[in-house]
Task: inverse folding
């Protein structure tokens, strides 16, 4: 979901996604950056993102990922789902 | 989140595409990862590298996504398994063969059981078909039909012989007398033509016949024009009205035609006496089995009172109503269950054996597996690899097993009565193949699971360091010991069963027949009843035949008789006996009936115990005489001589004087001599054997004692009758010895099957023991070397190993004896003069099993004594 959210601003390559996630989350969410790639492949497989080769900022060949229509739908779905869950957790917590 | 099918399909499609382009994807990913790393390096001079993690792992995970990994792993495992099979051909061969044996046997049994017990009868609404147990005179049919509210009732006789003449050479066929409604009650239909119509049981309108598909094809070239034609059966014309479809086989597959059962109270003997028939019924809508049973019981009681002659008070007292399917399989059910359980035993042994072999192989492969584990193979992965191997073995076994199965099926079929309806349909079909495949996978899992688990519990460091020779867990060794002991026990059970049958067979073969079948040829010659209605014509024919037969070169003597001992016929006759008046409590006793020419006793060498034999002087005109058997004489006159007493078949007026007593002959079966309800035999001169109505017995057999049994003599006998009358159906010339051995063919083949199972079992078990002990010795090489080094003699080492092997065998033997004592009870019905717990058989089998086990242990033990302490100690 985080990857999908990161891509909402437009196509991005793997390194970009990783840096973006790092920045946005203020280094709280730190996973092995290499595990980003299996996750991307899974998204490709699900058809939620698509990939194109292009030139990076420093003119190197890089693969840019962008959201597909189903990917956008999926993001909305997952955000609702996530919001519901957070709400539920908060309810439980406030009860205590 | 629910994924609709379409998106699932799209996913699968992309996965296939990914798999296709795997190499390109791989390259791209590599480039991408390199780019990422380069960026990290460029940005903060490599400080972020730790953040990245293992790029190899990422690569691996991606690759999993691009392909059908589980499928590919399976192929990998399978290829690996194939290499293992090829590297150990003996192991593979033994495993596959033993599994094929077990699975094949089971496939055959499954198809039999499916056809006979599970699949419903091929008639409409077969679950409503019933059989009223017991047999009834024809008079019972209208009685039951008019009074029963819960059932529609039909009668179908077991079948009797007819002469079919005028269609090529004369033919003896089997026909069943049926009530006209039998097809509608059964729920079956004629293939072409029609069923019988109501009223066709009445005298005068009963000259119709329905043919079986088989007879129609063989005799009438499957010509539909046969409908409406008149054919000659027993010299009387009957119009063909219908042809049954192929596969219709009720009451048995031997029946080739059906004729209406004539209901004519004027023919007293036919209506009330001679032939008793089975009744079957179809449950009326709304009626239940319990209602039918209660109704049938009360009807049987009412009917008993209507007999015009004294009928035993307990006649058909135990008659009840059972489902027709149970009636059809009734007698073979026990046999099927015994067969199935022994086949299952063999499969168990085969399974245990493969498990045991796999266990020992798992230990020898410990090192290899440890290496694989060290290289990162997960436990689940190793278990899966090993299971793939064992399931592969089982599937190969199953493939071969289907072939074995079709062979086994024909053997099993030969053990069951060939005439059973539906038997011919039993075949290895897709249902069976499916069941076998499931069985094979289960077998593979069952036999592979223990070894796989044992192998996966490898202590890596320990195994690699010591070379895997001594690192074994005691638990799995004990499991193997248990498996092998179980094998020994199962083998013992099979061997005891085979042994008991073998002893019965030996007892049967040495039984005193009461006659000498050596150098006697028999051929059945049966004129039409019409021809034999006039006594003289029939008598003259036989006299002429006997005269001609005796003149054939090589023939010493010729006789005629209505049956040959052990030929399967049951000619019995109710008799009146002097000093024994008939009462309700003592109805007419039944005797085995022999209508014989005087030479009969000479040809078959039946000894005379008192009085005289029959002679040519006992003719149509002379005073009626009879011989009885020793058992009949004892039964009727235990304290006095039977000679001079009088006896007659119940249907006659004239009494015959008993002029001699002859030895008991085993007419019915080798084990029983005579059926239980028959206390003895009566022999009457053929010339005097005509019934009150003048009808002579027609199905006669010509017996000839010969100097030597050669083809020329046989040919001459075969042609004899044809020369007299081309309309006489002539059977095949058979030696009497063949008839005798044929009577126990069924028994002999049962014994052979058990023996086959037992032999397979003992071979498998000895392989099992051998494998276990070899493994044990190789495991203990170090220990044995040590023992030798500190002074143990060869004999002591031998004793150590043998002792270990014998201990396992002893457990197996004790277990086997216990199981056998419980199980052989079910064999009791097949045994002859041998107790189901026969001590001698048990002792011999135990000795045999122990001896074989000892031999199987001896090889590894001998090898153990050759262990060089220097080598084995230095090995580690």
Result:
């Amino acid at each position: 979901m985080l990857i999908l959210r990161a891509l909402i601003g437009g196509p991005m390559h793997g390194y970009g996604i990783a840096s973006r996630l790092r920045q946005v989350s203020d280094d709280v969410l730190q996973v092995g950056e290499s595990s980003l790639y299996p996750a991307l492949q899974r998204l490709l497989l699900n058809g939620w993102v698509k990939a194109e080769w292009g030139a990076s900022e420093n003119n190197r060949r890089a693969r840019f990922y962008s959201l597909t229509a189903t990917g956008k739908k999926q993001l909305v779905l997952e955000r609702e789902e996530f919001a519901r869950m957070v709400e539920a957790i908060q309810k439980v917590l406030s009860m205590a | 989140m629910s994924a609709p099918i379409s998106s699932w399909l799209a996913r699968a499609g992309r996965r296939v595409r990914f798999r296709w382009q795997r190499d390109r994807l791989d390259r791209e990913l590599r480039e991408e990862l390199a780019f990422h790393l380069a960026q990290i390096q460029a940005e903060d001079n490599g400080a972020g590298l730790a953040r990245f993690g293992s790029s190899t792992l990422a690569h691996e995970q991606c690759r999993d996504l691009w392909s059908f990994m589980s499928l590919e792993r399976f192929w990998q495992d399978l290829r690996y398994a194939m290499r293992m099979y090829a590297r150990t051909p003996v192991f593979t061969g033994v495993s596959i063969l033993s599994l094929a044996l077990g699975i094949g046997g089971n496939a055959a049994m499954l198809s039999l059981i499916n056809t006979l017990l599970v699949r419903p009868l091929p008639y409409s609404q077969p679950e409503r078909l019933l059989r009223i147990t017991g047999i009834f005179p024809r008079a019972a049919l209208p009685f039951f039909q008019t009074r029963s509210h819960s059932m529609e009732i039909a009668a179908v006789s077991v079948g009797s012989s007819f002469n079919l003449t005028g269609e090529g050479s004369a033919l003896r066929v089997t026909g069943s007398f049926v009530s006209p409604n039998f097809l509608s009650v059964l729920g079956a239909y004629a293939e072409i033509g029609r069923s019988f119509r109501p009223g066709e049981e009445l005298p005068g309108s009963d000259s119709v016949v329905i043919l079986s598909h088989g007879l129609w094809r063989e005799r009438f070239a499957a010509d539909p024009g046969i409908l409406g034609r008149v054919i000659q059966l027993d010299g009387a014309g009957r119009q063909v009205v219908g042809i049954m479809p192929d596969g219709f086989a009720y009451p048995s597959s031997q029946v080739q035609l059906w004729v209406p059962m004539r209901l004519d109270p004027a023919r007293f003997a036919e209506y009330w006496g001679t032939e008793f028939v089975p009744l079957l019924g179809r449950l009326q809508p709304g009626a239940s089995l319990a209602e039918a049973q209660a109704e049938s019981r009360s009807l049987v009681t009412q009917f008993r009172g209507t007999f015009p002659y004294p009928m035993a008070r307990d006649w058909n007292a135990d008659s009840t109503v059972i489902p027709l399917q149970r009636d059809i399989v009734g007698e073979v059910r026990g046999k099927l269950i015994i067969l199935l359980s022994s086949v299952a035993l063999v499969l168990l042994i085969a399974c245990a054996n493969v498990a045991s072999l796999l266990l020992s192989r798992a230990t020898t492969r410990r090192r290899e597996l440890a290496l694989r584990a060290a290289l990162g193979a997960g436990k689940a992965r190793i278990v899966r690899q090993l299971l793939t191997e064992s399931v592969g073995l089982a599937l190969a076994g199953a493939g071969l097993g289907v072939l074995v199965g079709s062979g086994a099926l024909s053997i099993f079929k030969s053990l069951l009565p060939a005439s059973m309806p539906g038997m011919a349909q039993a075949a290895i079909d897709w249902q069976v193949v499916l069941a076998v495949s499931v069985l094979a996978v289960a077998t593979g899992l069952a036999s592979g699971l223990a070894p796989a688990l044992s192998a996966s519990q490898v202590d890596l460091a320990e195994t690699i360091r010591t070379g895997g020779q001594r690192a074994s867990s005691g638990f799995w060794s004990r499991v193997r010991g248990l498996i092998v002991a179980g094998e020994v026990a199962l083998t013992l059970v099979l061997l005891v069963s085979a042994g008991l049958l073998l002893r019965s067979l030996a007892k049967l073969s040495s039984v005193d027949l009461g006659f000498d079948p050596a150098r006697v040829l028999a051929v059945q010659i049966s004129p039409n009843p019409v021809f034999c209605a006039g006594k003289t014509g029939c008598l003259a024919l036989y006299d002429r035949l006997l005269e001609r037969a005796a003149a054939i070169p090589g023939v010493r003597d010729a006789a005629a008789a209505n049956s040959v001992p052990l030929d399967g016929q049951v000619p019995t006759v109710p008799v009146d006996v002097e000093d024994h008046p008939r009462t309700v409590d003592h109805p007419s006793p039944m005797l085995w009936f022999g209508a014989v020419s005087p030479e009969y006793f000479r040809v078959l060498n039946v000894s005379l115990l008192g009085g005289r034999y029959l002679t040519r002087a006992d003719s149509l005109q002379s005073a009626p005489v009879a011989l009885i058997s020793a058992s009949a004489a004892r039964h009727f006159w235990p304290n006095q001589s039977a000679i001079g007493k009088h006896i007659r078949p119940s249907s006659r007026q004239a009494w015959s004087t008993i002029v001699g007593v002859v030895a008991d002959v085993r007419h019915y079966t080798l084990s029983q001599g005579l059926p239980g309800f028959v206390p003895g035999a009566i022999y009457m001169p053929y010339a005097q054997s005509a019934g009150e109505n003048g009808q002579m017995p027609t199905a006669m057999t010509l017996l000839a004692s010969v100097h030597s049994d050669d083809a020329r003599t046989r040919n001459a006998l075969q042609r004899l009758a044809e020369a007299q009358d081309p309309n006489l159906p002539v059977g095949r010339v058979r030696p009497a010895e063949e008839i005798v051995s044929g009577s126990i063919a069924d028994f002999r083949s049962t014994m052979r099957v058990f023996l086959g199972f037992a032999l397979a079992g003992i071979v498998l078990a000895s392989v099992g023991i051998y494998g276990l002990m070899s493994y044990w010795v190789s495991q203990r090489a170090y220990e044995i070397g040590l023992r030798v080094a500190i002074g143990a003699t060869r004999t002591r080492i031998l004793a150590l190993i043998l002792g270990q092997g014998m201990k396992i065998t002893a457990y197996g033997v004790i277990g086997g004896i216990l199981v056998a004592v419980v199980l052989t009870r079910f064999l009791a019905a097949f045994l002859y003069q041998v107790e189901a717990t026969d001590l001698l058989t048990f002792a011999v089998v135990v000795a045999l099993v122990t001896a074989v086990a000892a031999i199987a242990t001896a090889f590894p033990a001998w090898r153990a004594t050759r262990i060089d302490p220097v080598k084995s100690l230095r090995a580690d």
